[in-house]
Amino acid sequence: MSDLDRLDQRVFLATRNVKKLxxxxxxxxxxxxxxxVVGLDDVTTYxxxxxxxxxxxxxxxxxxxxxxxxxxxxxxxDDSGLCVDxxxxxPGVLSARWSGPPAPGQKDEADRRNNELLLAQLADVPDExxxxxxxxxxxxxYPVGEGGVAEHVVHGEMPGRIIREQRGSGGFxxxxxFVADEHAGLTTAELDPAEKDRISHRGRALREIAPLVADVxxxx
Length: 220
Known about the structure:
globular, about 220 residues, about 20% strand, alpha/beta
C-alpha cells in the first residue's frame, strides 16, 4: 500500500493521551487495517474548545466539531468519566479535573491526585455501596457534499465498583481503583489491553462506531 493510500485513511482523535490513541487505533484496525490515527500533537495547534457542557455527549461533540473545522480530517472525540453511585454520579464530566485542573504535561500527577481524593471521599462507604460505572460518549464528525458535515454519537458503559486501594500499572485515570463486574478480581489497570478494550465503556462505543468510521475512510 502506498503512503498516499495510508494518508487517505487518516482519522483525527482530538486528544494528546497516547494510550487513548493506541486504544482507538487497535479497535479501528479490526475494520480498516490501514487506518492511521493522529492526535493533537500531530496537527497544527488550534484553539481547543472549553469542555463546559453538562453531558459527555455535549463535550464529545464540541471537540469533534472543533477538530474537523481545524484539520479538515474526519474527527473522533470522546468524553468519558467515572460515575460513582455514592457520590450521586460524580465525578462524571468532571472526572479529569476532580482534584483541580491538571497542569500541562502533568497527566499522571493529576490521575494520582484524583484517585487519592476519590478514595478519601469514599473511605467510610461500605463495600456494598461502592458501585460505580464508567461512561463514554464518542462523537464522529466528517465532511459530506459541498461544505456539509455529518455527525454521529454513540455511548458505552462499563459497570463495576470502587475498591479501597490503587492496584495495577496499565490503563489510565481511575483504572487503578475500578473493578469491572466482568472481572471481579482485577482492576481495569491490571487487565490485558485487549481484554480491557473488549469490556470497557470506550471500547464498546468505539466498536459500535468503528464500522462507520471505516466506511467513511475507505470511501474518501
